[in-house]
Amino acid sequence: xxxxxxxxxxxxxxxxxxxxxxxxxxxxxxxxxxxxxxxxxxxxxxxxxxxxxxxxxxxxxxxxxxxxxxxxxxxxxxxxxxxxxxxxxxxxxxxxxxxxxxxxxxxxxxxxxxxxxxxxxxxxxxxxxxxxxxxxxxxxxxxxxxxxxxxxxxxxxxxxxxxxxxxxxxxxxxxxxxxxxxxxxxxxxxxxxxxxxxxxxxxxxxxxxxxxxxxxxxxxxxxxxxxxxxxxxxxxxxxxxxxxxxxxxxxxxxxxxxxx
Length: 260
What we know:
By secondary structure, this protein is mainly α. It has helices at about 20-35, 35-60, 70-75, 75-95, 95-100, 100-105, 110-145, 150-155, 160-185, 185-205, 210-215, 220-225, 235-255. Helices cover about 75% and strands about 0% of the residues. Helix 9 crosses helix 10. The longest helix has about 35 residues, at about 110-145. It is globular.
């Protein structure tokens, strides 16, 4: 049955009342955490984050290197690059497991709201995981960074690390969301993210070094870090358009055009 043959449903509390955006976001968040497999995935990600932060602290202590919040939180860049896209992919493709989207399409004012509710739900959970990493790093830095003036040193640059960490978290999550929106298959999207992140960027840098800034997925990340090797604004716009805006646009178009 096409959604075009369905009449807007009436829900308790009012004639023709439609679902609000906040409720859509809450529904999408629940989809992400309401199964044993999804809870297992988030538990595994949390355990990996703990292992990486604690392992880095142990190695740094053994080498006599000072332990700071910035070094701990910044030591898991690869984890962020792979874990946050995974959350974005799960958020965008959760309906492949629940098969509920088409059921409540007739209740929505438009599919665009549901599409962006998925994006926001993934962002909420990705930020929650990033905040867990920040909290863990703060606890370890406070415990191993010493007291008195040493504790103050352990938290030097905390503001910059918080901003860059959150920005990196959201960019990585959006990368997964964008590819999943266009690909529409969880496993294929995960494989694509892993291959592009671990292999594709290296190939681009090797084969097309002069154009790598325009084509790489990490150009925006590099711009956040700054420095003399920071990419130009044109390179950032090109990378964001290629890996974020175009896949998101394709995903939004598919969402609007798909038959219910």
